[in-house]
Amino acid sequence: MTMISNGVIDAENEKVHAALEADYDHLGEVLARRGVDIGWVKDKVAAYGVAVPSWGVGTGGTRFARFPGQGEPRHIFDKLEDCAVIQQLTRATPTVSLHIPWDKVDDLKGLKQRGDELGLGFDAMNSNTFQDQPQQRLSYKYGSLSNANGATRQQAIDHNIECIEIGKVLGSKALTVWIGDGSNFPGQSHFARSFERYLEAMKSIYKHLPDDWRIFSEHKMYEPAFYSTVVQDWGSNYLIAQELGPKAFCLVDLGHHAPNVNIEMIVSRLIQFKKLGGFHFNDSKYGDDDLDTGSIDPYRLFLVFNELVDAELSHADGFDPAHMLDQSHNVTDPIESLMTSAMEVSRAYAQALIVDREALGGYQEGGDALMAYETLKKAFRTDVEPILAMARLEQEGAINPVSAYRASGYRQKIAGERPAVTGSGGGIV
Ligand code: LRH
Ligand code: MN
Ligand code: MN
């Protein structure tokens, strides 16, 4: 079933269809002159998908304040419907990534069935041991999987195992573990002992992974811990994946690095050593800002995809990263932001696909730095929008998803059905 009437989408598409055909034909000629088959790029873009985070469809806010919008999802079933709108219009987001226990999943079978009805699959499960939940027995104030107290660690382990069990019913194939464990003062925690406890705990979780599952550890430089963080960088992350075994991989959240860090090179390293598990896409200016993907530095996103496409086209061994968005929306309609972000990810992919890799390789070998750089820039400068739009149109999506969404009146409709939520303090639930 579809959330928005196909008639609305058709009517919106009709307005710009002829212009799209002309733009697509023109771009096809431009690319043909460069030896690129536009149909090949379009088919790859059409087959590409990025998962939507269930927590993204609600207004996130910051830790200082949250200003809810209209029609905020009340529960996971509402969230799924919003995700279905994003997929219907963009055709780029076939799966949803859940966060437990932000998503209350009491009716697991019903949830799976609803996903099937809406044509949505379930991507990686996300556990949450970075905050205390009501009625929680032991606090995570001093850490979860690395807590000095064995009973607290066990509680965090059990929660992760529960996430795997939930995911098994839903058809998920991965567990993403991000912990906020760390310290706020020099001397507060013993670096090596904390990491050792974390590794032991992760090994216990790893034992419960089904054979066809993967576990992703997600690093983050700081926050909520402001002096030291147990899993703070890709080096620690790589060590974790190595220690755990072949089903363990590193997850790269674009917002979790120091400013100016060369993320695309980290991506390359992890690919080379077969430990790249996946991404949380977002953008940032200062830290873990959770801004819309591609909104600040689309060139960096392109450079990350340049590495991914290089690996894809050279059939790099063991290369199968999961792609997810992870962002927080403060001033926009989350559905519009997520649609735009999904399209930004597809755009970076398409631009990376049209890089002349043979020429690039020649310039690299020959030491022609300027032409190597120019080869990348040429692809990045190319407006691939007609390819993305055509891929959407051919799959019954919208040529312009935001216009179609606005024309549909979906937000107004759900605002009438879902009770208004008042503003509150920070939080991303
Ligand atoms: C931590 C993080 C992690 C969480 C999500 C809500 O900053 O990136 O992925 O699960 O935010
Ligand atoms: Mn993340
Ligand atoms: Mn984050």
From TrEMBL:
> Does the record bear Membrane in its keywords?
no
| Keywords, alphabetical | Isomerase, Manganese, Metal-binding
Residue ranges of every copy of the Xylose isomerase-like TIM barrel domain listed in the record = 106-290
Q: Name one GO molecular function term.
A: metal ion binding
Instruction: Extract the PANTHER family matched here.
Output: L-RHAMNOSE ISOMERASE
Q: What is this protein called?
A: L-rhamnose catabolism isomerase
Species of origin reads Rhizobium setariae
| Gene name of this polypeptide | rhaI
